[in-house]
């Protein structure tokens, strides 16, 4: 796992941006390593691929709390 810019170990936090703007930050509560995402997310196609992390995300961290993340 990892490579091509993706982490080899899951991070503690993940951020999403759309249209070049930060939209949300989430704590990664847990993760699974899967070669078939259908086993965890039934809406995904049932096919094998290389191992990937599938994250369980915590709630959105509110904008006013973003500054506190750097202190952790």
Notes on the protein architecture:
A hairpin with a 2-residue loop joins strand 1 and strand 2 (21-34). The mean pLDDT is 87. Helices cover 6% and strands 40% of the residues. The protein is mostly beta strands and 72 residues long. Strands 1-2-3 form a three-stranded antiparallel sheet, with no helix packed on it. It has one helix at residues 66-69; strands spanning 13-18, 21-34, 52-60. The chain starts with 12 loop residues before the first strand and ends with a helix. It is built from one helix and three strands, in the order E-E-E-H.
Q: Keywords for this structure?
A:
single chain; 72 residues; mainly beta; 3-stranded antiparallel β-sheet
Strand arrangement, major sheet? 1-2-3
> Which structural class fits the helix and strand makeup?
mainly beta
Quickly count the helices: 1
What characteristic shape results from the CA principal axes? elongated
Low-confidence stretches: none
Cα Rg: 14 Å
Q: What's the mean pLDDT score?
A: 87
Q: Helicity range of the residues?
A: under 10%
Element order: H for helix, E for strand = EEEH
Number of E-type strands: 3
Distance between the termini: 26 Å
Strand fraction: 35-45%
Largest sheet: 3 strands, antiparallel
């Amino acid at each position: 796992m990892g490579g091509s810019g993706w982490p080899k170990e899951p991070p503690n936090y993940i951020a999403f941006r759309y249209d070049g703007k930060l939209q949300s930050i989430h704590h990664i509560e847990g993760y699974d390593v899967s070669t078939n995402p259908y086993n965890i997310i039934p809406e995904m196609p049932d096919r094998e691929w290389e191992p990937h992390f599938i994250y369980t995300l915590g709630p959105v961290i509110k904008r006013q709390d973003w500054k506190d993340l750097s202190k952790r």
